[in-house]
Amino acid sequence: MIEVGTELPPLQVTLRREDLVRYAGASGDFNPIHWNDRMAAALGLPGVIAHGMLTMASAARVVTDWIEDPADLVEYGVRFTKPVVVPDDDKGATITFSAKVDKVGDGLAEIDITALAGEEKVLGRARAVVRVR
Amino acid sequence: MTIDATMVGRSYAAAESYQVGREKIREFADAIGDGNPAYRGDDAIAPPTFAFVLGSRALEQLLNDEELGLRLDRIVHGAQKFSYTRPIKAGDDIAATATLTTVRKAGDVEVIMYETALTTVDGEPIATSTSTISHNRAEA
């Protein structure tokens, strides 16, 4: 039974430079701000940043790991509020995702997702809508 | 050239349809660190954000419109939303069309929204992707 206030199991994801390169290859998004310090600095960024779509994909896992079938996701949106800076070292950047059911009705559940890199919220208005059976 | 609000409504169709393969889905799932079994095997569906990869074929056409004068290396992704009619599946042959919906300017920065419709080549709706990007025209 899914109820308002239900908390989903949280998820921690660590992104290293190699993960950004792998995502660039798999997604076809070779924007240099995701692998080239010089180009990132030229755009005024604090360093090489993770693809927003990679952060968004990781955040979705909190929800799709929880529902039985990822096909039940009907809507999913985020704002990229702070860039996730990925240093060129072995530690990379760690993001902690958590989520809570905000609304249930009409066979759907609306879930709010929180994404924290350190103390910083890196996603805003991250929300998924799933079909509930 | 530069982009402005008079260009809202322009549509860009991906040059070719996208033939979704199960190995590509697995590669993408691996790249996002997602071991969900739904994304593997003969009946694989794609992770939700894979829809953006298909849409980027249409975005390429938008970037190729010289009148807009946009450059990928000056773009930062601001927001993204998807509405799914059904998941993308291995074996799908998918067409993507991006339409400019909003253009706002603030100095050298242009905030651009575009909507991408994903359908099968037979016209079955699959998903709609709504993207907000900011494009910085300032010389570094």
From TrEMBL, chain A:
GO terms for cellular component: fatty acid synthase complex. InterPro entries: Fatty_acid_synthase (IPR003965), HotDog_dom_sf (IPR029069), MaoC-like_dom (IPR002539). GO terms for biological process: fatty acid biosynthetic process. Residues 11-91 form the MaoC-like domain. It comes from the Bacteria. GO terms for molecular function: fatty acid synthase activity. It holds the Pfam family MaoC_dehydratas. Belongs to the enoyl-CoA hydratase/isomerase family. This is Acyl dehydratase. It comes from Kribbella jejuensis.
From TrEMBL, chain B:
It holds the Pfam family FAS1_DH_region. Residues 7-128 form the FAS1-like dehydratase domain. Coiled coil: none annotated. Transmembrane segments: none annotated. Gene3D superfamilies: Hotdog Thioesterase (3.10.129.10). Belongs to the UPF0336 family. This is UPF0336 protein FB475_2192.
